[in-house]
Structures are given as structure tokens and as C-alpha cells.
Amino acid sequence: MRKVGKIGLALGGGGARGLAHIGVMKVLEREKIRPGIIVGTSVGAIVGGALASGMKVGELEGRLASFLESNLYTSSELKAMGDAESGAELSLSRRIHSYFRSKIRLAQALYRHSILQINDIEEFINFFIPDIQIGETAIPFRAVATDLLRGELVVLKEGSLRRSILASSAVPGALPPVEINGRQLSDGGIISVVPVSCALEEGADAVIAVAVDRDISLVSDLQTAVDIYVRAGEIQGFHLERYDLERADIVIRPQLEGTHWTDFSQSRELISLGESAAMDHLPEMRRLVGPKWEFLGRVKRSVKSFFALRP
Prior knowledge:
Layout: E1 7-11, H1 20-30, E2 37-41, H2 43-52, H3 57-69, H4 71-74, H5 77-86, H6 92-109, H7 118-128, E3 141-147, E4 152-156, H8 161-168, E5 178-180, E6 183-187, H9 196-201, E7 206-210, H10 225-245, E8 250-252, H11 267-280, H12 282-288, H13 291-309
Parallel strand pairs: 1-2, 1-7, 2-3, 7-8
Antiparallel strand pairs: 3-4, 3-6, 5-6
Helix pairs in contact: 1-3, 1-11, 2-8, 7-8
């Protein structure tokens, strides 16, 4: 491994589009660029947490393939939503069924905390994430969530790795908030879609950010109040993200087009797109971990040693 300053990896939220993070990590692993800290929001917390726990990219890909073929996923509400959004259900009977299911979900949202049950995503997370504490990860890791009652960003750096990632992934409306230490926590993307600032505040000298959110220019006709509400949220998130990404040293944005956050049907393509986007930034990443950062790392260690030796 190269001796470099502390590189932070900030992985953004975006549901199924976050599978592109795996492709980015493929390139980093090949180049032996090991992050000094990984910070993730939502699906970025899931992928980042798996890799921070010591899992290799090849193992993560294998687990993903097994999960998508398992009954745990094929019979889930998450897959049903993804099929409806991807257009995978082509027969007339399936389209009619999908139409009524969408109306039922909307009606349910008016009378309970979420459309999906928490176990829908909890089983998904448990399939990929070991049952350990955050402090036990091989690479320092942070999950970003939002305190719904206080309106604050919460950086989870201790406690159960699985539960912290669950809180970071609780998409508002789709999943109920997760209670941790008296706080009602939801998706970190409400405040920080790509947690660059958090990575810097946690000690990173430079940050590689990966954004997998939906392209702001892609929008269908706004026919209902729900369409307009969702669109307003996308616009707000886009501008919040731009502010955070300004502090990143490298921004990797795979071209994921209109993939819906519940559509895992194109997993291989999404991973490939992430890998391709990372390769486009390979010269920048190599420069980032070059002699400059090695020198700064030595200076920082020397300063710490000087003050440690003072009486």
C-alpha cells in the first residue's frame, strides 16, 4: 500500500443506483487505494459498511448475486416495487395488478408511517453486513442519518453497525424511522446526500465522493400532487448536494440515467457503470495518493511526535 494522507470516501444515497458504488470500489481495490475512512448515506452506508467491515469487492458482488436470486428478495415488496418501476411486468394482467398495487401503497401511506415494513430493508442489510459494532470495522466507518424530531444531521460512529446502517437507509415515507438512543432517525440524504463534509470533519485530508442520485434533468410529466411533491424533493436534494460536493477533491458521478431507486434488475450494468466512471477519474486518483500526500502525511506525523515529546 502507498503511504498517503488520510483519504476519505463519501458514498451517496440513491437506492439501487448505489450498486454503482461497487464498481467504483473495484477500481480502488485494484489500484490499492485504501480509504482511511468511509462515510455513507443510505445505500452508500450499506455498500460502505460492507467494505469497511473487511469484505472484498468480489465477495460483495457474489453476495449480491445470491441475494437477488434468493426467495428473500424475489418474494419481497421491494422487488414488486422495482418491477413496476422498471417496466418488467409486461403482460396486461401484470400491468393492471401493478396499477392497483401502486394505489394501495399510496392509500396505506396516509394511515401508517411507511409504505414498506422495516423488515423489508432490515433483512437486506443483514444479508450483507456482519453483526458487529461500528468500532470493530477494519476501516473506520461512519453512517449518516437525520434526526426527524430535532431536524439535525446525526453521524453514527458507535453502536451496532447493522442498526446504524438501517437508520441511514430509512427512506422517509417508504420506510419508518429507526429509534436509536431516543432519536427517531431516517435517511441521511434528507440533509446530506453525499457526506463529504462529514468525511472531512472526521479527519480525512482529501475526499473522493461518489454521487449516484437521479439526474435532475430526467423528469416525466407531472400529473399528480405526488409527482410534484417528489419532484420538489429531487430539486432540493440536487442543490444541497452541489453545496456538499464543492468540498470534495474528486467527484465520481456514474451515468445511471433514469434507474429507479427500487429497481435492482440491472445490477451488473450498474456496477459496470460505476467502474467505468471511476476509471475516467483514475489519473486524478493516482495523483491524489502520490508524493504530495505522502509528504503531508510525514509532516503531520512529525508535528504530532514533536508535541507528544514536549514535557
